[in-house]
Amino acid sequence: MNKQEFDPNLVTQFLNQYQDRGMMKWQGFYLSDHTASLNKVDREDEIKLNRRHSEQMALNEIESCLSQALEKSQVVRVERSLQDQNGYVAPFIEGKIEGYYQDKLMIGGEFIAINEIYAISLMK
Fold it and tell me: Keywords on this record (predicted)?
């Protein structure tokens, strides 16, 4: 059928009876970006749910570990005693002790108060 031979009844019928499915036709189109993003969120949630504190250290043990790390310029892993609003353990911070000021340490670009440290370990 070409432009000169169209059926006006068919056009009228199409315009009156056709129902577009709207967003339903797009529901099956998940892009790989969406899938990757959802997988990333799932991994982050799983890490957050499985993060647990090691045994709490006494202040003298923490100070001993800090002095050893400073003397030998070692990388440390700090577990803070903080929790988020849902009760999840705060992410651990790893890095060299870059400096300190009063009762705060600079580790991995973050200031950490010494009284916030739950446990600390030397990384090898």
Answer: Plasmid
